[in-house]
Amino acid sequence: MTGRDMEEKLPRALWVRLFVYVVVGHLFAAFIYFLFEVAPKK
Question: Is 1 helix (H, G, I), strand (E, B) or coil?
Answer without folding.
Answer: coil
